[in-house]
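Notebook B, p. 112. Complex prediction, attempt 2.
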Amino acid sequence: MAKTTRRVFLGGGVAAGGLLSGWFGAGLIEYMGAAPDTPWKVLTAEEAAIVDRLAEELIPADPPSSEFPEGIPGAHEAKVVRYIDWQLAKDAPYADQLPVYREHLAKVAKLGAAEVERQFPKFFATLLTHVKQGFYGHPIHGGNFDWASYRMIGIAGPSFVGRNRPA
Amino acid sequence: MSHKETTEAVVIGAGAGGGCAAKVLACAGIKTILLERGEWCRTDPLGEDDLASQRSPRLVQGPGPHGARTRACHCENNGNWGVVSPWNAACVGSGTVTYGAMAWRFLETDFHLKSHYGEIPDSSVEDWPITYDDLEPYYYQAECEIGVAGSNEGNPFAAPRRQPFPMPPFALDPESQLVWNVGKQMGLHPFHAPFLRNSIPYNGRPACIHQHSCVGFQCPIDAKNGTQNTVIPVALASGNCELRIRCMVTELLVDDNGKLRGVKYVDENDQPHELEAKIVVLAAGSNNSAQLLMVSRSRLFPNGAGNNHDAVGRNISSHAYVDARGFLDHDIFTEAGPGTGTAFMDFSHDNPGFICGGVLHTDFRFVPSIFAAANHLGVPAWGKTHKDFVRTHFKRMIRVCGPHQQTPRWENRIVLDWKRKDHWGLPFLVAEGAEHPNDAKARKFMSDKAAAILKACGATSIQQGYGGDKPRKGWSLGGQHQSGACRMGTDPKRSVVDKWCRVWDFPNLFVADCGVHPNNGGMNPVLTGMALAFRTANHIVASRKEVGL
């Protein structure tokens, strides 16, 4: 589904590089390919900005710390809004929910996440589910940019063959 | 106009049972056509994608069904009446491509529940028409031909084996090792969970490399053993088996004299075909095999083939999983997967106050998206606190879970909803019924035991999941581990197939999936389904003259 125009090289990818052959090689480019920024597929700039703002409130960025000198990305940096935009696109898995988004985003433009949860609990639950998928799920679908959540937890990204052998 | 042709045997469904049956028939020289509604599952599109895995198909069902065309039925749930979700994969190998691959033999008691526990009111608990000993050689055939690693050392509850496991068990990861040690201190009997995975190079394929993402995914190096990389290739290599993918069987062709002539199927271009055969083996999975019987109406079988006593589709059971999870004060997660290693059968039978029970075991790895989506008691669902929790606790989680054996009931069944039809015009399946009161007790008991193990491991914030104290309506009927809809028995009025898994009234129609199980064990049923398929197909070969083969 995701069209790859530029590969984002992942930490550890070099080590796996020698193994990119045969049965696994063909598919790998897709897995590695969190695609670059593209214009939104279905959301308007205003709608995307609202989703982006709410998503960042649900999963906020962390400031630099001793363990994470560069901080930890939140939903904005992990491109969760791109994940949601892609899934709402025509023929995408959540295409049927675009009208729901459209209707509610118009109403929540000025509301914080807690207020959205209070006033529109059903929409909020959907949004939260999708935001978590976009932050913690596989980058191939547009979110979890650069494996932000995996790096936060401290686990390997794609388990390339050989990568996850017990030491 | 439909295209007509003739063959000797047709097997419907290239999953666990169908693959085994097709192999036995083809290797005995019987010309066999294996029909599969899905297609070959490739590693590439499924890969590591946790949002499309068979275990967590948030976006798409990676191995299939893909979209409306291969979807067997719509997916919704409205309490008492729930439309059955497909759950099982639709591809060559079906669920055996992506399963967790636990390879249990049912216990001896599972084959004679009624004799063991007596008459259970409001249930359809029966003895099987066969014993564990009858099935034992075919368990071993399945273990060898598909490939199983395990050991019963330390497990006094296991049914006796005539031969050792074909492969040694897997080493334990730190979580399973901890649960093993603590369980032993508690007086329990830890042992290695058996797997349809290669612990050593086997059958021309390599040993497992311990991907952390295993259950729900296709193995990238083919070290997980399903029918797609074992018996089906053998069947095809025999020269006697033709596999036709993207072909959906829509009807069993029964003539006005009540004779089964063959099947009708629709190909990928929606073209209908008629395929005449001397033998038909139905292996579409419990629900869909029953559906095919029910939709195949004819003069002598107005309610569907083999359904003159309204027994088709009844006695369904699947598995309600119970669990307990908690958190240690240190990390225990390892990248090496897939997780499950230690198991206990201490609570599978003869528990206080209820019948049956089930196996308990450490669980497969959670992927972050499942962990983050789960409800964690005392933790807000979003915001910095939730994010911090995921970061600090993901690697500390410890979990013990298991399936309890549901009490079969005549009233628990799938029915056809003729008002709603799928792509091929087949009526939707709807699950109907309610859990037996026994099972609510069993669920809580098993979850309490899991929690006790975790507590002894030093876990805190222990959270139990067992679905509440009351019997549930329409809960966990015919989802994963679906079984029972074509029950095996001795009474033609209360069962669908005889002890050879032959449909009553039809000399040439057999069922080779978990639908024949009179009860579904307190464990994953696939190895039993495979063993029965081997037994049935061997019987067909042995008695081939009777059906004109």
